[in-house]
């Protein structure tokens, strides 16, 4: 399991499928300040003269794009979701397929659902294919191309090669995939082999995203990972030698017992192998989760604080960019042109995400929802001719502006004029904040653009939260003028 971020991965926030699981953008972390009262712009001002990388904020903020969503009454949910699927799209979308099984519960993961049983695979793939077929003719699905598909979990690579192949073939049969559609399969090296990878490439998978977390065997053993770091590195090299797909991996910094030298070797190993891309996630330790309990009981040392994680992030980015890698988002760096990272970038922009499978989340036409995660309940609802969804809600009124802020900061330049066009008064509301951040070393203003520095990128969730508070302030100012 990875984050989004939220995978949701990363793993995308809009897709609600756990891509923020590793805390690439702070995860549950709370921020400055995560109090019961709504945050205001002034809460995100930084002390001038502090070290912006390690001291800008006390902890990470978390400003999910779904905050402020308005639940749809359960009695109306079936009718509303029917209208959503009956409404055509005018723009491309992405699709997310969820596989809610893992071989074991890794300590860092807060999204474990079901223990993998090989006998469960064929029936679950049957269910996914049936859902693809049933929804394929709806106007939401059929009206415009889908240019990225992410098969996440869970551990999709645990599925049998034949089951995965027929699932990929069903994607091509039932979805309007663009000619250059990015099809990502998420997995781990355990239970995966080159023969399976070759068969998946033959079926149409063109991107493999492998959850490594660390190449240190000692650190991996603490996390519950089964293969040694050397074995994982060798497997990734074999995948690259196969030459059939883009190959990317995740690394986590700030893990319990992970030294600076461990992290440096992780970065150097990625560069030595020559992966197409890598995502650098900050650890997000979920309260009450297995890692938090292990730390509480003294079985693991405490993980690194955000101020201790910050230099690790900076060193990871700098060591790779010095070797010619390109940073395309806050946490993702690429070495080759074939690594497009299209799904994750699209999720950040707030595009429609079409969900399939138990636990998959998505959004379209101003609504967000999640497929029922309990497989037995899902089957029962389908048998009763009911939509197997939960949490259906209207997205916040500023959802598009929030997505523009998040995507702009992610890619290194926020277009302030474009946000202003969506929310008049935004520039006035955030002017003191941007001036403060520029003076503090968190970014630079260039006309209508704001670009975060390396320190600002580390604290990106706080910057996003501060600018989102500016949206609220602008809305309040507008309401005041309307009243007057």
Outline:
By secondary structure, the protein is α/β, with parallel strands linked by helices. It is built from 18 helices and 16 strands.
Overview of this structure, please?
This protein has 484 residues and is of the alpha/beta class. The chain folds into two domains: 41-61 and 398-483, no CATH class; 70-348, Alpha-Beta Horseshoe (pyruvate-formate lyase- activating enzyme), CATH 3.80.30.20. Helix content is 40%, strand content 17%. It contains 18 helices and 16 strands. Strands 8-9-7-6-5-4-3-2-10 form a nine-stranded mixed sheet, with helices on both faces. Helix 9 (260-273) links the parallel strand 6 and strand 7 (277-282). Helix 16 runs antiparallel to helix 18 (460-483). The termini are far apart.
Short key terms for the protein model shown above:
alpha/beta; 484 residues; 18 helices; 9-stranded mixed sheet; pyruvate-formate lyase- activating enzyme; 4-stranded antiparallel sheet
